[in-house]
Amino acid sequence: MPERAAQMGRRKRIALIAHDHRKADLLDWARYNRGTLARHELYATGSTGALLESELGLSVTRFLSGPLGGDQQVGAALAEGRIDFVIFFWDPLEPQPHDVDVKALLRIAVVYNTPMACNRATADFILSSPLMEEEYERHTVPFVPRSAAGRTTGADG
Q1: What's the pTM?
Q2: Most buried residue among 9, 31, 48, 139 by CB atoms closer than 10 A?
Q3: Who contacts 45 (Cβ-Cβ below 8 Å, separation ≥6)?
Q4: Which is the catalytic residue, given 71, 84, 91, 156?
């Protein structure tokens, strides 16, 4: 996979996701950061998007609910360069019926070198970064399949 670059404009495309037990935390964080969020394009999964629109009075483009494919839609948007970063208040202590989708989203964020905050402290640092107000070129890491790197792909790989 050759290195690719994704250009982020001054107006960032931010995906906001929260598991059920973390929705209140995300809403509290979003209320506190409403002014900054209002300057960017917001995306969210299912009911999180509805809550954000209602509470903040901002426009939010909504994907499906996470368990119904929303996490996969966000992952696809990351891979296609339609989302610049993700704020995902997930609940690591609660089993999720769509846990494989959550893991896939986390993996795709790393593969495409996408900034991702999984807790309030990291979200605060990302949103307060001077890079939020500038254009930014995000480079992806060129991952090489194991067999192409001269390693075996067998069970002892």
Answers
A1: 0.85
A2: 48
A3: 15, 17, 62, 63, 64, 65, 66, 70, 71, 73, 74
A4: 71
Give pLDDT, residue 152.
47
Long-range CB pairs of 35-42, under 8 A, 24+ apart, other chains included: 36/127, 36/132, 37/127, 39/11, 40/11, 40/12, 40/13, 40/14, 40/132, 41/11, 41/12, 41/13, 41/14, 42/14, 42/16
Residues 24-53 have pLDDT tens digits of 999 999 999 999 999 999 999 999 999 999
User: Where do the structural domains in the chain lie, given as residue ranges?
Assistant: 9-129
User: Is 71 an annotated catalytic residue?
Assistant: yes
- Contact yes or no for 144/135 (Cβ under 8 A): no
d(CA 15, CA 12): 10
Task: Specify whether domain 9-129 bears CATH 3.40.50.1380.
Answer: yes
Rounded distance, CA 21 to CA 7, Å?
34
Taking the CA atoms of 57, 79, 113 and 97 in sequence, report the sign of the dihedral they define: positive
Give percent above pLDDT 70 in the chain: 83
Say which residue, 72 or 96, is predicted with more confidence: 72
